[in-house]
Structure formats: structure tokens, C-alpha cells
Amino acid sequence: MTTFDSRSLGQASELFELTIAELRPVAEGVVSLELRTPDGADLPAWQPGAHIDVLLPNGIVRQYSLCGDPAQRDNWRIGVLREPASRGGSSYVHEELRQGGTLSVAGPRNNFSLAEADRYLFIAGGIGITPILPMIRAVAAQGKPWTLLYGGRSRRSMAFLEEIGGLAGGEAHIVPQDEFGLLDLQKFLGEHLPDTLVYCCGPAPLIDAVEAKCQIWRSGALHLERFAPSDKAANKEKGSFEVELARSGKRLVIPPYRSILDILEENGCKVTNSCRAGICGTCLVKVLSGVPDHFDDVLSYEDQEAGDVMLVCVSRAKSDLLVLDL
Amino acid sequence: MVDVRRVRGGDGLAEINDELDQILDSVVENTRLATESFFASYDKNPDPKVLAAWLAPRAWREIDYVFLLNEQIRRYGLEFERKHITLLAKQSFQEAEHYEIVGRAIESLGGTVPTSVPPEAKPWSDFLWECLERHPLAAIAAWNCSETSASGSFEPTFKAGERHDFAEVVRVYKQIETDEKFHVGLGRQVLAAYAKTDHDRDEILRAMRGMRDIAWKTFTPESVAQARSA
Ligand SMILES: Cc1cc2nc3c(=O)[nH]c(=O)nc-3n(C[C@H](O)[C@H](O)[C@H](O)COP(=O)(O)OP(=O)(O)OC[C@H]3O[C@@H](n4cnc5c(N)ncnc54)[C@H](O)[C@@H]3O)c2cc1C
Ligand code: FES
Ligand SMILES: [Fe+2]
Ligand SMILES: [Fe+2]
């Protein structure tokens, strides 16, 4: 297991082989996976809103929010919705993964962290409940008031309803569409509440609607996370892959026959280099997640195998996405 | 993590790798000591002209590498893979850049950039050209030793740079330090890829040993003093 500190993220970013200690359906089309280290050791600490990268054996990398309890350091829980039109991420999780098996994951990382406020309004659509659930738990534990608006197609498709029922100090509005129609956003967002922060996660139409309603709110009041895949990934050419720059969150597509180094430079990201041929080792970059495909002549086989550094002038990716410490 | 001496690409040096490493370690150490001793004397009398004079044979090395590399390619290049021709040419281009930037640093210190071989660099230059005549891999071995030796001078140069505030020289040598990793790795790869016979290996060893005894000398304060009094 390799560990390194990602300064940009201010948190450890690690690559692990974890055991799938439990895999069970928690709603129609949703499974929850409980992941543990093989030796039962603690996993890195995380804060609500964090997600991990799951590196599936078919080479696909997908992000899943941690939806368990951060206080339980010996396991991570994720909830995965089976996308009907899956290109191989969630379908693999649902069809191929087995309880007792292992799973490569990287992280945790957090682009959706919970800021201080007097009160909170949480809006979740469908599987978007996953990052929201630990947030509510944290807010409830602090004894602060919270409101949850949770929509879904039907009650059966909505995960973690029982758990939500057990959380104190707030009000949960559970809104299955087949019973009550769409969420009444006007009622909750129609008036700006200066002491409230809004956290929203869900399908794109919901997020867009919430964004539109929050125009009248002060800037910074709305925090959101989109689960949607980027257009770029869908139009992926054979031999191309994506690189994410961890410090800025910027994503770049690396086409076939172009080097990562070229594309980084074209996008104003400077990396020391000299030979551009995999000989000098000066373009070494840390890999925070994803699986590099090494083509250099100078990294030791052990370093190549470990996969936590790469020479970006020649090496490429075996996974769809590489997250680099840049 | 990255050791350019362990670059992959051929096993022609397997039997002599240890000996080559010993030669290289020793020349790096001698160059480090020579550089430290130069800056110890420079500390007592920090005259930019003296620093410029110390850099002059280094500037000559850069431009002489350009000549050597191109002659190496012209004479022997077609025995190599095309990618190695390209990479040697790339090295040649970078050596030309080094001549340009070291030259600029020398001028900023009030010195003169050599346009013919300085007397104190002559033994070094003569040895390389003689190697080039002798064997297709000998000059590469000799300059690989010489370029490796330079790595011993970087640290003491950067430290002195902080004491005496010669930022331009430090900047130039930071760039050169990066490129030198390429040149050292490339040389080692080419030698390992094309050395086939014991004769090849003997020539490589001869060239490296010869350069081990020369490469560090122009880094000493004595060499600079002699050049300045001439
Ligand atoms: C930070 C983060 C956290 C996440 N957390 C969770 C979580 O907790 N639980 C969870 O289930 N998922 C989560 N996701 C989403 C998850 O990472 C995957 O995107 C999801 O599982 C779908 O992957 P897939 O390979 O099955 O489907 P994909 O093949 O990626 O397709 C998914 C859907 O998008 C459509 N689609 C495909 N390409 C495009 C395109 N270019 N533009 C628009 N639509 C397209 C497809 O038709 C399909 O309906 C998260 C995503 C992010 C970024
Ligand atoms: S630039 Fe030399 S190894 Fe990448
Ligand atoms: Fe040089
Ligand atoms: Fe060089």
C-alpha cells in the first residue's frame, strides 16, 4: 500500500486493495458496499462530502461518495445506483462484484465539504442522497437545525430512508414522485435565508432547477455536486483518456498520439522536462488515482508496478482517468 | 526513485557496470572537492571576473559537445537506431543552448566567452577527439564520464550562489542540471545498447578512465589562477 500526501488536497490520497465485507441491495437499483482493509486496520479519516475513486477490474474508474459514518474508521460505505445505460461502471459493480471479493480504490477526496453555518437545507435527488447522508449526521451531532428535501422516483427506489428516519434535530421531507410529484423547490428556496447553507446533489435537472432558484440567495450559499459523467468521456476516442489536475480540479483529454506533457503545456501547466523520451526522469509526477501505463526506460520496475508516480512525457493510462498531483 | 545510470535499453555493459559506477563516483567526488575548493578561495576574494574565468572552460565544453555530437552522428550514427540519432541531435541542440546561456552568464560577470579552445580545456578536448577517432563508442563513454562529473559541481555552486548572490549563474546551472540527467542517461543507454564485444567494453573503460583523470581539473582554483596569469 502506498501513501503520499497530496498537499493540494490537504488530505492523504491513497491507493488501496480493500475487501468487500458486505454487498447488499438497499433500494430498487441501489446496492451498498461496505469496504474494509484486509487486516482490519483503520482507513484514512474523511469528512462528509468526500468520495473515493473505484478502479474497476475492467479498467473503468468511477467516483462514489462515502455515505457511511466518518467515526467508524474501520470501514467505508458507498451506495451505487445501477445506471440503465451504463458503459461499464455501475453495471460492473452490480453484476460482477461479490461480497468477500476485493476492490481497488483511491482517495478519499472532497470537493463538496460542509462549511460552518447556523442551519442547513439539504436537497437530494435519487442516489444524490449518498454525500448528503453523512452531512446530516454531522449536523445532527452538532445539534444544529437541518431540513432535508429528498426526492426519488418511488419510495422503493429511495435508499437509506430508515437511517434518515433515525436522525435527530431536523425535519426530513421524503418526496417519492409517484406519490407527491416533484420537490416543491419554491417553498424552500423562494425566500433567501441568510443563516442557511444549501447543499444539493442529484440528477442534472434537479441541480439546474436548484441553481436557478438560488439566484436570489447570496453567492456562496449554494453548494452542489454533480454525479453526471462529462461529455468528453462519452466521446472518448480509442487510445484517449482523461487527466485531472488535483490542485485545480481541471480535466484534460489526452488524445491518442499526443503526450500528457504536451497537453499539460498547452494548458499552461508547467512540468520540468528535458528528453521527452522517458530517459531523464525529470518529468516525474505523482499519480493520486488511476492506473498509469508506463513507457519510460528509467523508473525502476518496482516504481512502475506501484503506479504512484509516472513520467508524463511518454507514459499513458490504463484507466479512463488519471488524477495527477499537479 | 530515478537513477539515470540504471536506464534500460541494452545489456552490453552488464559485466562492467560496477566498474563504470566506481569510475563515475570517483570523478563526481573529485569534481565536488575541486568546486568546493574553488569557492573556498572565491569566498576570500569574490571577484566576478574570477568566476567568469572559472566558467570559461565550461562554456567551451558545451560548444565542443555540439561539435563532437554532430561528428559522432555523421560518422557512426547510421549504425544506431534512428531514435538514438534523434536523441543525440537533441542533446546537441541542448548543448548549444548551454553554450548560449553559460556565455550570457560569463558576460554578465564581465568575462569573455571563449571562441577557441582555452588552454586549460585543451587536454579535455584533445582526449575526447582522440576517443572519437578510436572507436564508435569511446567518445560517448568519455563525455558520459565528463557530464557525470559535472553533477558533483552543482550543489557547491548553488550554495555559493546563495552566499554571493549570483542568481543568473545558479539559474543557468539549474537548467543544465536537468538536461544533464538526460545526457547521462542517453549516453549510458547508447553504450549499453551497442557494446557487443570485449573490445567494445575495453574501449569504453579506457575512455572513462582517461576522462576520470581529466574532467575535474578545470574546476580547481589552481586551474583558474593559471588561466588568468597566462
Ligand atoms: C464526485 C462524484 C460522486 C459520485 N457519487 C456517486 C454515488 O455515491 N453513487 C452513485 O451511484 N454514483 C455516484 N457518482 C456517479 C458515478 O461515478 C458514475 O458516474 C455512475 O455510477 C455511472 O457510471 P456508469 O459507468 O455506470 O455509467 P456511464 O456509462 O457513465 O453513464 C451514466 C449515464 O449517463 C449517460 N451518459 C453517458 N455519457 C454521457 C454524456 N457524455 N453526457 C451525458 N450523459 C451521458 C448514460 O446514458 C447513462 O444514463 C458520483 C460521481 C461523482 C463525480
Ligand atoms: S522528460 Fe525525460 S523522462 Fe520525461
Ligand atoms: Fe551541457
Ligand atoms: Fe550535457
Short description:
Chain A is of the alpha/beta class and 326 residues long. Chain A has helices spanning 90-95, 129-141, 161-165, 177-180, 185-189, 204-213, 231-234, 260-266, 301-306, and strands spanning 2-6, 11-27, 30-36, 50-55, 61-65, 76-81, 102-110, 119-125, 146-152, 170-176, 196-202, 222-226, 241-245, 250-254, 284-289, 292-293, 309-311, 316-317, 321-324.
Structure write-up:
Chain B: This is Ferritin-like domain-containing protein. Chain A: Residues 13-115 form the FAD-binding FR-type domain. Chain A: Keywords: 2Fe-2S, Flavoprotein, Iron, Iron-sulfur, Metal-binding, Oxidoreductase. Chain A: GO terms for molecular function: 2 iron, 2 sulfur cluster binding; metal ion binding; oxidoreductase activity. The complex is a heterodimer of chains A (326) and B (230). Chain A has 326 residues and is an alpha/beta fold. Chain A has 3 domains: 6-110, Translation factors (Elongation Factor Tu (Ef-tu), domain 3, Beta Barrel), CATH 2.40.30.10; 119-226, Nucleotide-binding domain of ferredoxin-NADP reductase (FNR) module (Rossmann fold); 241-324, Ubiquitin-like (UB roll), CATH 3.10.20. Chain A has helices at 90-95, 129-141, 161-165, 177-180, 185-189, 204-213, 231-234, 260-266, 301-306, and strands at residues 2-6, 11-27, 30-36, 50-55, 61-65, 76-81, 102-110, 119-125, 146-152, 170-176, 196-202, 222-226, 241-245, 250-254, 284-289, 292-293, 309-311, 316-317, 321-324. In chain A, the strands form 4 sheets. In chain A, strands 1, 2, 3, 4, 5, 6 and 7 form a 7-stranded antiparallel β-sheet that branches. Chain A starts with a strand and ends with a strand. Chain B is an all-alpha fold. Chain B has one domain (12-229): Heme oxygenase-like (Heme Oxygenase, Chain A, Up-down Bundle), CATH 1.20.910. Residues 273-276, 278-283, 296, 311, 313 of chain A line the site of FE2/S2 (inorganic) cluster.
